[in-house]
Structure formats: structure tokens, C-alpha cells
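Bench notes, afternoon.
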Amino acid sequence: MPTPDKLPTMAGPALYRVRIRGPLDPKVAQFLGDLEVDSEHDEKGEPIATLRGVLADQAALAGLLSTLYTYHLPILSIECLGATEPPAPDSVHDEE
């Protein structure tokens, strides 16, 4: 769960919302991991896609932006909605 009053760090997870111009091709969406994708149209009828989800750290954000650049998807806005707690490590038990 994001904590809006907690500032993100370079190495910590945070919830982001990224808006891009244009429809998001399903082939591109598969490279975006667990991000939610919503589609809408602006006041001029132009398609806008909104990506929302937790990114592991600032490097993951940079990777997302690089992917969007590679696919020539113009970025309209990037918003950090708050830092999140890192996921709990998986508890792996050896079966004997």
C-alpha cells in the first residue's frame, strides 16, 4: 500500500502513474509487467493510456521510460503516488 507522505528513494519501491499519448499496443503491454493499463480519450478525441503500478526502484522507472521511448510513445506525465513497503521475502522451505 502506498504511503503518500513517505518520499520515494532511489532503491525503494513506489507507486507510479504514467500517462502516454496514443493507444498501447497489447504487444508492448506485455513488456510492462504488472502495471495496470487504462485507456481513455482527451478532449480532442486523442487516445491516452495511463499506466499505474508499483515499480521496484528508480532503475525500474528508468527501464519503463526506456521501453516507452523504444516504442515511440510520448510521455505526457509521470507521477509518484507514494513510496511503498518492499514486498516480504518469499518464505521458501526445503522439503525433505
